[in-house]
Amino acid sequence: MASRLAVRLRSTPWWARVVVVWLLTRLLTTAIILVIASTQEQNPWTGPHPPYLAYSAIWDGNWYKIVSFYGYPSTLPITDTGHVGENAWAFMPGYPFLVSLLRFATGGQWEVLALGVSVVCGLAAALVFYRLMRHVLGADGQALFAVLLFCVAPVSPLLQLSYAESMYTLLLVIALYLVVLRRYGWLFLVVPIMAFTRPSGLAFALFLVLHTVVRFVTRARDPYPLRQRVLTSVLAVYSGLLGLAWPAIAWLATGDLTAYTDTELAWRAPYIGYVELVPFTAWFQGGNWWLGAPLGAILVVVLIALFVAILFSPWVKRLGVDLRLWVGAYGVYLLAVFFPQSSTFRLLMPMFPLLGAAAVPRSVVFRVLLVIVSVALQIGWLLICWAVYGADWTPP
User: Fold this and answer.
1) Which of 16, 35, 105, 158 is most buried (CB neighbours < 10 A)?
2) Which residues, other chains included, contact 138 with Cβ-Cβ below 8 Å and sequence gap of 6+?
3) Which Pfam families match (predicted)?
4) DSSP secondary structure, 216-276, as one string
5) What whole-number distance in Å separates Cα of residue 378 and Cα of residue 155?
6) Among the listed residues 322, 373, 381, the one whose alpha carbon sits nearest the alpha carbon of residue 157
7) What's the gap between Cα 138 and its chain centre?
8) Which of 383, 381, 386 has its CA nearest to residue 155?
9) Is residue 357 part of a domain?
10) Residue 294 and residue 288 in contact, taking contact as beta carbons nearer than 8 Å
11) Quick count: other Cβ atoms within 10 Å of Cβ 294?
12) 24-43 burial, b for 16+ CB within 10 Å, e for fewer?
């Protein structure tokens, strides 16, 4: 019976298997969200026990709706202390403008369209992720299990909520797949959309710089034609400029040179007050805020060492140099600019290629336990970060 089922599964088209995994895991996540919504009390965005559509569009979803309907302010809000307050400039236009375009074309409800974009992009991301994992791991079973982990990951509910992460993840997995396949020309189309969906241009530029250096150093065993050298070098500069484009647009629109960075800093003010943005200091500030000095700073150093060790572990090495370079580059970017708090879990989502490393072991027991733990962490993330408890200070 089991062998017959295995033969039938192998004869099923790869995309159908991915779709089945996607649908089953989304049903599970939907059930979890509905149960949590049924216990949700009144909050700043909804009444008590909100329906799924309303509940999927709280937190940053509300900011994306503001951008979709009203665009961006030309005058920055100023707090009572004279600092820039939270405002729409912190949210990239790619996702809300796409929803606006669909709303203009169809006349549909914003919440329905926003959720629809997330779900469609999430499914498409799972399909491309399978192809990427099939390419780097070589085994169909490992690639499909990596997709399962992608679909039950602790922050995977974002793939069916009114957030830009689903759209960004699709663009990122396409971009990574193109780099792995050495189809650099298509990146000129993907990178700008990606850079205006989530702040990622500088991280991807660093990745391309590292990719270019590694390819040049290893050109004896991995031919690196002149055309590809030019393309990757130009792409790195192109991505870097796109990474700086949104702060420049905010400056031009508001007349304030630091409009974007001041806006981003407003979100960490409740923790450490208003401070200047100094690269590579926020994690140490956050560590000391959470745990006290010097324990917090020591923990950050330990986390950095652990991260480097993971990148050089045998399972992660199976992903190939390119995906490891991306994870490393994105880690450096987060260390440079991000303040660690409850949104950290969401901002780790672009490191999803690491899920492929967890799919390397073939032990059934290990895989079952990993899925159970992932679903449990998913419930925990929703309860801690998505559910709202009064004046909640744990945004997702």
Assistant:
1) 158
2) none
3) Mannosyl_trans2 (PF04188)
4) HHTTTTS---HHHHHHHHHHHHHHHHHHHHHHHHHHHHHS-TTHHHHHHHHTTHHHH-S--
5) 6
6) 381
7) 25
8) 381
9) yes
10) yes
11) 12
12) ebbeebeebbeebbeebeeb
Show Cβ contacts of residue 113 under 8 Å, excluding neighbours closer than 6 positions: 99, 102, 103, 106
d(CA 203, CA 208): 9
Q: CA 142 to CA 359: how far, in whole Å?
A: 5
Determine what percent of the chain falls in helix, strand and coil, rounding each to the nearest 5. Answer: 70, 0, 30
Token pair for 114: 């926003």
pLDDT tens digits, the chain, 396 residues: what are they? 546 655 666 778 999 999 999 999 999 999 999 999 999 999 999 999 999 999 999 999 999 999 999 999 999 999 999 999 999 999 999 999 999 999 999 999 999 999 999 999 999 999 999 999 999 999 999 999 999 999 999 999 999 999 999 999 999 999 999 999 999 999 999 999 999 999 989 999 999 999 999 999 999 999 999 999 999 999 999 999 999 999 999 999 999 999 999 999 999 998 998 988 899 999 999 999 999 999 999 999 999 999 999 999 999 999 999 999 999 999 999 999 999 999 999 999 999 999 999 999 999 999 999 999 999 999 999 999 999 998 888 899
Residue pair 245/260 in contact (Cβ under 8 Å)? The answer is: no
Q: How many domains does the chain have?
A: 1
Phi and psi for 138 in degrees, rounded to 5? 85, -15
Residue range of the domain that includes 153? 2-31+48-386
Q: Is 248 contained in some domain?
A: yes
**42 falls within a domain:** no
Which structure tokens are listed for 353? 């290629």
Q: Rounded distance, CA 296 to CA 331, Å?
A: 18
